[in-house]
Amino acid sequence: QSLDRVMARTQAKGATVIIMNPRTGEILAMASRPGFDPNRFYRYGAGEWKNRAVSIIYEPGSTFKSVVAAAALQEKVVAVNERFVDKGYVVVSGRRIKNWNDDSYGTVSLTDVIKNSINTVFVQIGLRLGADRLNNYARAFGFGQATDIGLPGEEEGLLFNTKDMRDSDVATMAIGQSIAVTPLQLLTAVAAIANDGVLLKPYVIKEIYNADGTLAEATPTQRVRQVISPQTAKVLSGLLEKVIAEGGGKRAAVKGYRVAGKTGTAERLKETGSGYEAGRYIASFV
To answer: What's the pTM value of the predicted model, to 2 decimals?
Structure first.
């Protein structure tokens, strides 16, 4: 119902929402729009049959910066108390990359960088990590492969081949562009940050009962791997709280609770796959 209200208000072409317990991998809710009546599926087009939570891939934009920050903190290429200089733009391999709002923030802390989603500094951080480590952490967090949740039509997403990456590719990947993910992949990755750095396999079916009420089958929590240390996860969670408390995610605040998250806006790729659609965006929050 919430998703339907948002669709009506924003006139979005499509949307999905997923809620997951990061301690177990259990999917508590999943909705996708546009939808269809499965009893009369033949009245709808193939695009409406898709479960967008698992069957679309898109450039995640700034939501992916939470993964980049996790890798950088774990590899100690940045320090929590470090200061960075933002001139408002950075040039990498002849490509000029600006901040989302065209502003220059000057000398800033890591907290400010994450809170304000400063592209130029994330480019610097990505270049410190380099192609190898950036791609390795992306794969460790579950990108570039299906989660194997057991739902039909799940996409694997797209990552660079490390050996083909130039500095400009590292730079754009560090701000969540030039790669493609599914909403479920992104959720599962960020849930690992919330789960002391442990990536879990998501699942939909919790339990199956026999007709007499006895338990026939239960899905156990399946640990995939420890991606980052519990300490790194705790530090990063604290930084991501600032996004809600002071940054662009203030509308996600819930009175009486500590909430961590990350906003993201990405340009929409053309259907042909070449270039972007002017004035068309994919907005996301995790």
So the answer is: 0.93
